[in-house]
Amino acid sequence: MNSPAKKNLADKKQSLPHRIRDQIRYEILTGTLPAGTPLKQDLLAARFQASRIPVREALRQLETEGLVAYHLNRGAVVMKMDIAQICELLDIRIALECYAVRIAVPNMAQADFEEMESILAAYDAADSVEEWADLNRRFHMALCLPANNQRLRRLIEEYGLNTDRYTHEMMSKATGKRKPQQDHYAIVEACRQHNAQLAASLLEAHILETRKNLVAMQRMAENAR
Among 69, 135, 187, 197, whose CB has the most other CB atoms within 10 angstroms? Predict the structure, then answer.
């Protein structure tokens, strides 16, 4: 039988790769580690005061999330996606988030509406793209959390966060925040009316608009060359 001391030591060893993963993920998603940045295991091990084993495990987990890629003779680097790959992830987001909203709306309470409206109020007051991106992620998660499905939540976090780091800066510069905010408020109103189908339809249109604009921006950039 394991002693409490041995169990605590095992828990600490098990959680170390997760802590390293979470910190690197945060830095990738916030742009502190831009696409193409090499992730040297020895440097990361020294930084986190750990061996290379938990660092290697953390990087492998980030690879499964699409945030890190391994290149021959270069090792791990922060992954860069092209528009086609981003569009594929946006399609997955539509499937996941719209399903989540359909089952979330019947569970929504006053506290959920107040949380979403608080996030949107902060979004209205924010004046930087970085703040808009963070608040946008928070809103989409708050919208889906009442589905009360932890596995679904983790999938939405993975695909939502992954696409946001590529799309939000481009889209914010192109469209500003007024139109996305109008969409957000309309979705919340549909939720308040307990109209799950309308909320899901509005959310699908919202994400599809992002997809169409990204493709259009790429097309215009290519034509301008």
Answer: 187
Cα–Cα dist 104/207, whole Å: 18
The one-letter amino acid code at 165 reads R
**What sign has the CA pseudo-torsion 17, 136, 168, 129?**
negative
Q: Which two tokens stand for residue 152?
A: 């679904």
In a structure prediction context, what are the per-residue pLDDT tens digits for the chain, which is 225 residues long?
Answer: 444 444 444 444 458 999 999 899 888 877 788 888 999 999 999 999 999 999 999 999 998 877 899 987 779 999 887 788 888 888 999 999 999 999 999 999 999 999 999 999 999 998 887 788 888 889 999 999 999 999 999 889 877 766 776 666 666 655 667 888 999 999 999 999 999 999 999 999 999 998 888 888 878 877 877
CB atoms within 10 A of CB 152: 18
Q: Is the dihedral of CA 152, 155, 157, 161 positive or negative?
A: negative
Q: Which two tokens stand for residue 1?
A: 């039988």
Rounded to whole angstroms, the Cα distance separating 70 from 86 reads 19
